[in-house]
Amino acid sequence: MNSEMPFTAVAPPVFDGINYQVWAVRMEAYLDANDLWEAVEQVYEVPTLSDNPTVAQIKNHREKKQRTSKAKATLFAAVSPTIFYRIMTLKTAKEIWDFLKGEYEGNERIKGMQVLNLIREFELQKMKESETIKEYSNKLLSIVNNVRLLGTDFSDSRIVQKILVTIPEKFETTISSLENSKDLSSITLAELLNALQAQEQRRLMRQERTVEGAFFIKSQNYRDGKNRKKTEQQVWRLCIQHQKQ
């Protein structure tokens, strides 16, 4: 028995009017995985059956009709209630897709403004002392991916440069080591992140050992103190007994 859940049982990504480009990429992949993208991508006409159709023609007609209905139903399920009320009267999946694209993707001028705002946000980023390399790099990549989805190129080398000049001084050792071993202008994003995360991990391990060492010393001092107090009490009792004799 196959325990894997069929892909059709996975709910489609829901669009609520924000980040259309991200939703469109995910939705196209979802429709394609369910063999429905063809019914959305183009005008998908279901052929009319002749008076004496063959079994193959009947089967083809039924499959195309089902695919059209499923594509439309899937798009209805993939939008918020507010957006659904705007598309509920549209007849085909392609009409729905084209309406959403025209309404939310925006024209070139709007996309250009969005790109400028994202790049400005990227340039203003600076890693906080409390952040990890993973948290900071994920934040940068989230901005960059949105820029790329809007059709603007954004190289990994630009992300590398951004990280090199905005991380705290505690990573200076790793940067110096990289400078001595290779040309920083040719280092990949993956190489840089791996090197920085390795230093971060070593620093964390040293801190843990320091804490453990301090705890051990404190515990040892506590035990020594208890033992010393116990010994003093025993000596005191012996002195009292000796005086009574």
Could you tell me the radius of gyration in angstroms? 33 Å
Order of helices and strands: HHHHHHHHHH
**Global shape:** elongated
Overall pLDDT metric:
82
DSSP E strands, number: 0
| Main pleated-sheet profile | none
Helix/strand structural class: mainly alpha
Give the percentage of residues in beta strands.
Answer: under 5%
Percentage of residues in helical conformation:
over 70%
Number of helices: 10
Low-confidence stretches: 1-5
For the terminal residues, how far apart are their CA atoms? Answer: 88 Å
Structure summarized in a few sentences:
This protein has 10 helices and no strands.
Please outline the helices and strands.
Elements lengths: L19 H14 L3 H5 L13 H23 L3 H7 L5 H12 L3 H17 L8 H17 L6 H11 L5 H10 L7 H56 L1
Helix pairs in contact: 3-5, 6-7
Write a structural description.
The structure is a single chain. This protein is mainly α and 245 residues long. Among the domains are: 10-104, no CATH class; 131-200, no CATH class. It is 70% helix and 0% strand. Helix 6 (108-124) packs antiparallel against helix 7 (133-149). It is elongated and about 115 Å long. The chain starts with 19 loop residues before the first helix and ends with a helix.
